[in-house]
Amino acid sequence: MWSGLSAGSRRARCLVSPAAARQPLRAPCLADSSTGLGSLDSISASPCLLQSRSFHFPRSNWFPWRTRLIHDRQAALRKKRHILPRKTDPEERPIFYQKEDGNGLAFREKDLRIGMKRLLDYARLIRGRQLQDGIDWVESIARMKSEPILKMMQDAMQECSNKYKLDPARLFIFDAQPQRGKFVRELKKHARGNFGIIRRPRNYFMIRVREMPLEEFFHRIYVFNKVPRSMASDMRLALHQNRVSPQMRKEWAPYLSAHTRQRHRMELKWLDSTRQFDYYQARREWMQRYKSNLLRASAEAREARGLTPLPMAE
């Protein structure tokens, strides 16, 4: 992107001291009046060199009251993205569940040689994400010190899937927090017989994982349309490699890409505004298809042996 900028399109900044500002104006970095273009030698010999601007652009006048207005607008946009039932049915299950329902699993890694500031960055990165999404994010950092955290999350995925028989697609990290541990003191030799004491941290990192209920998972994936990146990329890869039928492109349209997800949300908004969208009916049909897809492998194996398929659990 930056290679497309020519040298003539960049602006040169001259840092002038107050004493030099009172002298007559002499600009050695300006273009030659005879040719209209400055020579490369004059530019390279000039004390006014071309300076590239850094990638951080601080926002001026970012007052607390303006920050509150922006946060309120963002919250209103998130609330507008939801589509809730117009009439609450007491016989139907709720949409949202409490995270502290007692069904979460905690995993902790001990004696991490990482400071608290870096562990807080990891916690902010993976908190609220799907477990597989968090693994992909930490793995994409490609840092040597992220290996213990990555291994802990991979072990958590294996344990939840194999030992507790949980659905990997519905495993979400609802809490991630670092915990301060002890310090190990070591001696570091200096010149002339001197030495110093180095304090190396041994901290802890804990994540709490829960299996999202199907009702909340339907609202997050289908209605709110917050699809995990790993799920969407796996769908696109399966279509690209022809591992599924082209019919799945239509069924997976609400999840494939940002464009298809936006079209899906616009269609749901239109159906809801014209009173054609029954939330509970759509949820029942979606959950029925999801359960049948989970049992499809075992059902096909039993049908090949001449056995009746297992009934779906409620």
Number of helices: 12
The average pLDDT score comes to: 83
Oligomer: single chain
Number of strands: 3
- State the secondary-structure class: alpha+beta
What percent of residues are in strands? 5-15%
What is the rounded Rg? Answer: 29 Å
Return residue spans where pLDDT drops below 50 for at least 5 consecutive residues.
1-50
Biggest sheet descriptor = 3 strands, antiparallel
Query: Helicity range of the residues?
Result: 40-55%
**In what order do the strands lie side by side in the largest sheet?**
1-3-2
How far apart are the termini?
Answer: 54 Å
What is the N-to-C succession of helices and strands? HHHEHHHEEHHHHHH
Shape annotation: globular
What's the quick description here?
With 314 residues, the chain is an alpha+beta fold.
Description:
With 314 residues, the protein is α+β, with helices and mostly antiparallel strands. The protein is built from twelve helices and three strands; from the N terminus they run αααβαααββαααααα. It has helices at 18-21, 40-45, 64-81, 116-126, 131-141, 147-163, 214-223, 229-240, 248-251, 258-273, 279-294, 296-304; strands at residues 105-112, 171-189, 195-211. Strands 1-3-2 form a three-stranded antiparallel β-sheet. Helix 5 runs antiparallel to helix 6 (147-163). The chain is globular and about 80 Å long. The two termini are 54 Å apart. 12% of the residues are buried.
